[in-house]
Structure formats: C-alpha cells, structure tokens
C-alpha cells in the first residue's frame, strides 16, 4: 500500500475527505499546516486523484508506505530555477544589457526545443568581454534560494543522505552554494576567464542532460544505493533523464514538458514538500 501526500498553501478539509474516498485511504494525518498524509491509499486510483488535485490546485504524491527519510541515501538537484529562484546566466546577461536575448535561448532550451550544449555555447559566447565581477554581483544581489530549500536539505542531511548539486550553470555559483549549504558534491561548467574578463567560452565538456544522468548513476553506484533510495529534482528538459533514473524524480515548478514526463511534481509548495514525502 501507499501513503498519499497532499500539499498546498491551503488544504480544505472537504478536499482531504474526498481524496481519502477517491484513493481508498483509511486515515488522514497532518504533517503540518500545508501537508497531509493519507494512509492506506491505492495507487490504482492515481488518475482520479490526479484529476481532482489538478482541479483544486493541490500537489500529490503516492509514496510506498514503508519508505522513510532514513531510506534515502542520495539527493540530486539541478541549480537554476530549482535550488535557486533565478537562471544565473540570464542575470549575468543583464549585466551585459542582453538579458532578453539570452533569456529567450534559455527558455527554448529548458522547453526542450534546442540542444542544451548548443544553447549554452551560444549564450556564453554573448558574454564575451564582461568583467568577472559581474558574477559576484549576481550571487550577492540576485541569487535567492527556492522556498523550502534549506529545510529540505537539513531534513535529508540530518537523516544521513548525501547531496549532489549538478548544474548546466557555472562552478562560480555551485561552489559558493556548496560552502553555504553543506552540499556533499557539486558539478557544473567552468567559465573561461582571462585578464578578469569572460572570454565567451566554457572550459571542458558541457554539463548536459546525459552528463547529469551519468553522474547520478555513477554516484548512486559508488554509494551502493538502490534506485528507490535516490531523490532527484529539476525543472528543465535537460533534467528529465536524471529524474527518470531516480526512484523519486520530482519536477519542481517545472516546464510543461517536464511535468508531463516526470514521475512526481511539486507546483504549489516549496522544496520542503519533497522532504514531506518521507516524514
């Protein structure tokens, strides 16, 4: 059997009762004010539950009843628009006065319309000549954590899970976030800088969808974990392969394509909603 997790800024009692009926759950328990656990739910009724939750703006997830947070050994995250609220490259572009041009390419790549490697190369090329101090300004002035990020990380870290931040963005930001949040590992692209200026190139191979998937599998194997002991979170098309390699792949405030294909979705609540699956 499963527990059905229901989450939203406000969850009406009558909606919980209806979901209990739809799912065949035998009890309703409050995790906290915005999250509820319906025990004994039948996943065979997932379609009816999904339709009801979509109509009522509720996040839902069917989680095996015997899975707890202590069972999760690895949490893998995308950075831009997942762990943090911004797309770093778009904000860097704003310092160059070309945010609209680069944002359009970013959005197209995240929707899966153009190849990620090609899109990143095109975007980084437009940054040539920008002073590297712009990176620090983006971090200090614009970068904000996604709601619930710190609570989510603390919950998983306290339970013993390792964390991997893997991004198609840049090491300048992932390394700062690693130190700030106590992340176990980070992987991202390295911007080439010469004489204090961005050259418009990336050093080494670009972190794309295949690399994200490969690194998740590699770390999962190194830790000796089963697939169902891994959580992955992302928002863009380049995150889908890694989401599908995790036992719990969560589309977080994601693009429509990703929401359609990801096993789980969070739209109404913050990243702590993922932790609520397991507590």
TrEMBL record:
Active site as annotated: 78, 80
Reaction(s) the record says it catalyses: O-phospho-D-serine + H2O = D-serine + phosphate; O-phospho-L-serine + H2O = L-serine + phosphate
Cofactor: Mg(2+)
Protein name: Phosphoserine phosphatase
GO-annotated molecular function: L-phosphoserine phosphatase activity; magnesium ion binding
EC supergroup of this enzyme: hydrolase
Enzyme Commission number, as recorded: 3.1.3.3
GO biological process: L-serine biosynthetic process
Gene3D superfamilies: HAD superfamily/HAD-like
UniProt cross-references to Pfam families, sorted A to Z: DUF4072, Hydrolase
Organism lineage: Bacteria, Pseudomonadati, Pseudomonadota, Betaproteobacteria, Neisseriales
Family listed: Belongs to the HAD-like hydrolase superfamily. SerB family.
Domain DUF4072: 4-45
Origin superkingdom: Bacteria
Pathway: Amino-acid biosynthesis; L-serine biosynthesis; L-serine from 3-phospho-D-glycerate: step 3/3
Organism: Iodobacter ciconiae
Record-linked InterPro entries: DUF4072, HAD-like_SerB, HAD-like_sf, HAD_sf, PSP
Residue stretches spanning the membrane: none
Name of the gene: serB
Sorted UniProt keywords: Amino-acid biosynthesis, Hydrolase, Magnesium, Metal-binding, Serine biosynthesis
GO cellular component term, pick one: cytoplasm
């Amino acid at each position: 059997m499963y527990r059905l997790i229901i989450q939203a800024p406000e969850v009406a009692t009558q909606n919980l009762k209806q979901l209990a009926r739809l799912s065949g759950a035998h009890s309703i328990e409050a995790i906290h004010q915005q999250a509820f656990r319906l025990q004994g739910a039948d996943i065979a009724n997932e379609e009816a539950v999904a339709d009801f939750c979509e109509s009522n703006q509720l996040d839902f997830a069917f989680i095996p009843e015997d899975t707890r947070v202590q069972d999760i050994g690895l949490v893998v995250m995308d950075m831009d628009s997942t762990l943090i609220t911004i797309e770093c490259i778009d904000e860097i572009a704003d310092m160059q006065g070309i945010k609209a041009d680069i944002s359009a390419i970013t959005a197209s790549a995240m929707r899966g319309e153009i190849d990620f490697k090609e899109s990143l190369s095109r975007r980084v090329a437009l940054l040539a000549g920008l002073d590297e101090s712009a990176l620090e300004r983006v971090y200090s002035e614009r970068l904000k954590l996604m709601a619930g990020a710190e609570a989510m990380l603390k919950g998983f870290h306290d339970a013993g899970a390792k964390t991997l931040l893997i991004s198609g963005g840049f090491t300048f930001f992932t390394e700062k976030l690693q130190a700030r949040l106590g992340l176990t590992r980070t992987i991202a692209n390295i911007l080439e800088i010469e004489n204090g200026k961005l050259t418009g190139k990336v050093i080494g191979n670009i972190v794309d969808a295949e690399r994200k998937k490969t690194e998740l599998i590699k770390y999962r194997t190194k830790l000796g974990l089963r697939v169902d002991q891994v959580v992955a979170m992302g928002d863009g098309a380049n995150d889908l392969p890694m989401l599908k390699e995790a036992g719990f792949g969560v589309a977080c405030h994601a693009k429509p394509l990703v929401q359609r294909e990801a096993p789980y979705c969070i739209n109404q609540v913050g990243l702590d909603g993922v932790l609520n699956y397991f507590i």
